[in-house]
Amino acid sequence: MSLYHAHAGQAEIIRTIQKDQSYIDEIRGQLSEILLLVSQRNWFKYQHLCKLIAEILYHHYAIVNNLQTLGEEYTGIIQVDSNYVMLPNKALQIFAILLEYGGEHVVDRILTRLQTEIDRSEEILPEAKENLNRMLDGLKFIVPYVRGFHTSLFYIYSGKYHISKRLTGINYVLIRNWLKENHSIYGFRILGVVTLLQLVLSLIVKMVEQRKNSKADAANAAVKRVAPPASGGENRNYSSE
């Protein structure tokens, strides 16, 4: 039997995420303290990884043991598959967690590696290299905005807060459906529209600035190619006059 009628709303999902994040922050702080006790040098080098490790450990423990996260238990929601019928596959859940907390970093590393390989290649023409690098720069520029656009759409239409949940088809359903908060739907929709407009305006401003900078760089490069080099002999003649 499908549980689509019991799907969780924006309020329940956001409260779940906030509650989970508070526990993840506690784990991150403890990991950071342990790392600092082991070695101050390693703390400076690896402390930025504590948050990622804490997030993966927290969710991995719940998935492996078929448990709700503390945030899900707090709000009374559970994860189900794309058909709203049964619990999602463990491997799919783990993949969703890895995708959520490491996906953006992996995409950035892949794009950077592609640019490096393009620059090293001797078979690609300089003009083609420039076009490919410009395209990859555009992708790297857009990636941070994707999460924001997805979040604004969640506020407007509900559904999935995380991009990883959308890609894997994992949904949330409310166990105590009679406790669902419908009065906050319109507030979230207004928030979503405002967030979306802000992102669009920010993206337009950034694109205009980037285009101006690109034109300025191209103009400077053209001037350098056209301008003849200064002659030392001519300078001496002018100075003697």
UniProtKB/TrEMBL annotation:
- State the membrane topology: Multi-pass membrane protein
InterPro entries registered for this protein in UniProt: PEX2/10 (IPR025654), Pex_N (IPR006845)
From the Swiss-Prot or TrEMBL record, what is one GO molecular function term?
zinc ion binding
Q: Which UniProt keywords apply?
A: Membrane, Metal-binding, Peroxisome, Protein transport, Transferase, Transmembrane, Transmembrane helix, Transport, Ubl conjugation pathway, Zinc, Zinc-finger
Q: Which family does it belong to?
A: Belongs to the pex2/pex10/pex12 family.
By what name is this protein known? Answer: RING-type E3 ubiquitin transferase
In this chain the Pex N-terminal domain maps to 20-213
Pathway of this protein?
Answer: Protein modification; protein ubiquitination
Keyword presence, Zinc: yes
Give the reactions, separated by semicolons, that this protein catalyses. Answer: S-ubiquitinyl-[E2 ubiquitin-conjugating enzyme]-L-cysteine + [acceptor protein]-L-lysine = [E2 ubiquitin-conjugating enzyme]-L-cysteine + N(6)-ubiquitinyl-[acceptor protein]-L-lysine
